[in-house]
Amino acid sequence: QPVSEEFQNGEGFGYIVAFRPNGTRGWKEKMVTSSDASKFIYRDESVPPLTPFEVKVGVYNNKGDGPFSPIVVICSAEGEPTAAPVDVKATSLSVSEILVAWKHSKESLGRPQGFEIGYWKDMEQEEAAEKVKTEGNESSVLLTGLEGNTLYHLTVRAYNAAGYGPPSTAVRAATKKSPPSQAPSNIMWIQDGSHVSLGWEPVRPLANESDVMGYKVLFRQEGQSNSQVIETQKTSAVVLLPDVGVYIIEVCAVSEGGDGTTSPQIRVPSFS
């Protein structure tokens, strides 16, 4: 903290910043000529990160030198991370999502404040990479909003206040193909009391769409927003309508890339 004017005792007031690596002899001194100064920055690229220094600050004016403060020990700032994350894995989850996971190398000198994930399409240059940052000790991130049926390259690097560490070796992952655009067609249904038997023609995906893994039958009472779901690998299903009222029934295909287009709605009255 600066010395107030009443204690400067004359013209030409300034500060003497003295410092030395911890455990050494001989002080290096720097003059700070502004009486209002409250900090001094010493730069030396040869000083390793987190090196402890003994520091004291003295005062002077035109009459001579004044006293020094008590000695305190401070450390030089840490360096940027020096090792790349290891064991980086990228897993495609859907048509637009890839999960990236990694481990932080214990050999890195600079402690990471977080990680930066860079990703770019197969036909693009790495310089065009999109970037996502995490904070803290996160070891995975879910990338969203990606293009379907697209191969991505991905790297991970640690960062802290001093800068960025080296990137990991690039890994690759391809997003899933888009879900089928065709809806189940020619839906037929037969009602027997509260049971409705459904049947439909199979969905044939296009070449750039995901294979059909099964179907979902969604049904809800008219006026309600939440649907109940029956999953099946067949092109038929039996639905139980538990309450009196009109039910809305829809069918869609299920694929790796997600759910496909839903069929036109069927309105079925229930008298149970």
From TrEMBL:
A molecular function GO annotation: cell-cell adhesion mediator activity
InterPro entries according to UniProt: FN3_dom, FN3_sf, Ig-like_fold
Keyword Membrane in annotation: yes
Main location per the UniProt record: membrane
Subcellular location as annotated: Cell membrane
Keywords: Cell adhesion, Cell membrane, Disulfide bond, Glycoprotein, GPI-anchor, Lipoprotein, Membrane, Repeat, Signal
Cellular component per GO, a single term: axon
Residues annotated as domain Fibronectin type-III: 1-79, 84-178, 180-272
GO BP terms, alphabetized: axon guidance; brain development
Coiled-coil segments: none
Pfam families: fn3
Signal sequence residues: none
Family: Belongs to the immunoglobulin superfamily. Contactin family.
Descriptive protein name: Contactin-5
Organism: Antrostomus carolinensis (Chuck-will's-widow)
